[in-house]
Amino acid sequence: MDYGQFFIFAGVGLLAQLVDGALGMAYGLVSNSILLALGLPPAVASATVHAAEVFTTGVSGASHAWFGNVRWRLFWQLAIPGAVGGVIGALFLANVPGETIRPFVNAYLLILGTMVLLRAFGKRLSRHQVQHSGVLGFFAGLLDAIGGGGWGPLATSTLIARGGSVRSTIGSVNAAEFVVTVSVSATLVMHVGVGHWPIVLGLLCGGVIAAPFAAWLVRHLPERAMMAAVGSLIVLISLGQLARQWW
User: Fold this and answer.
1) What is the C-alpha to C-alpha distance for residues 116 and 111, in angstroms, rounded to an integer?
2) What share of the chain is helix, strand, coil (3-state, %, to 5)?
3) Which of 1, 2, 153, 225 shows the greatest Cβ crowding within 10 Å of its Cβ?
4) Is there a contact between 88 and 165 (Cβ–Cβ < 8 Å)?
5) What's the predicted TM-score (pTM) here?
């Protein structure tokens, strides 16, 4: 094992989990943005992030189920279409040359980073119940696979902004994310493999170490300040990558 690489990505995983624990989203976004910035092909970056997330999302989903935070009807409405969308997105990602799709992935991350920034400044969608959770789940899974992250910002933000209960929405989305992550990870591993195990283990170990600190942070740091910091980080990384590809 390349121990230097392991410790670098343990730091990335720690940072990403601190962010995710404080906001309930963005582990995949932060991790994938950094991996792309370091030069990994989009398919490999997504496979690496999702392989690490299998464990973290499993623990998170089980915890929410244990504490009664999962609304099971919503869980199934999100999980099954989300898994289908995730597999389609993973197949698309695995069969398109990395340099061809890289600008689009970075543009997608830029949009999501902007969405996080808008949330930080109090912008919300209209307060109407989401009528088609399955459609939301499908597109969230599709874009999560292609972009290496985005399930939480799309699914959680949309459901909460349109009137969903915070507790049951976060619990149900987190539990459904495990199903989507397993589907995406299995598809990508079969097609592109995971040849960066030091990165996977680093992201995983960093995330596990950070989990209790994240639980503490969520009680002490202003949510809007954290969102603004995360959104700015993702936007800056994405803009830098797009500028490097264009010029």
Assistant:
1) 9
2) 85, 0, 15
3) 153
4) no
5) 0.77
Instruction: Quote the CA–CA distance of 181 and 83 in Å, as a whole number.
Output: 8
Count the neighbouring beta carbons within 10 Å of the beta carbon of residue 175: 25
Contact between residue 236 and residue 44 where contact means Cβ atoms under 8 Å apart: no
- 48 touches 35 (CB < 8 A): yes
Rounded CA gap, 115 and 235, in Å? 10
> What whole-number distance in Å separates Cα of residue 244 and Cα of residue 142?
26
**Integer Cα distance of 99 and 101 in angstroms:** 6
Calpha distance 154→140 (Å, rounded): 6
Chain segment 181-209, per-residue pLDDT in tens = 999 999 988 887 766 778 888 888 888 78
Distance between CA atoms of residues 142 and 144, nearest Å: 6
Q: What is the Cα 27 distance to its own chain's centre?
A: 5
CA 138 remoteness from chain centre: 15
Q: Which residue has the higher pLDDT, 186 or 23?
A: 186
Degrees to nearest 5, angle at CA 35 with 194 and 199: 45
Residue-wise pLDDT tens digits, 139-165:
999 988 888 777 877 787 778 766 666
| 28/12 Cα distance (integer angstroms) | 11
CA distance 35 to 221: 26
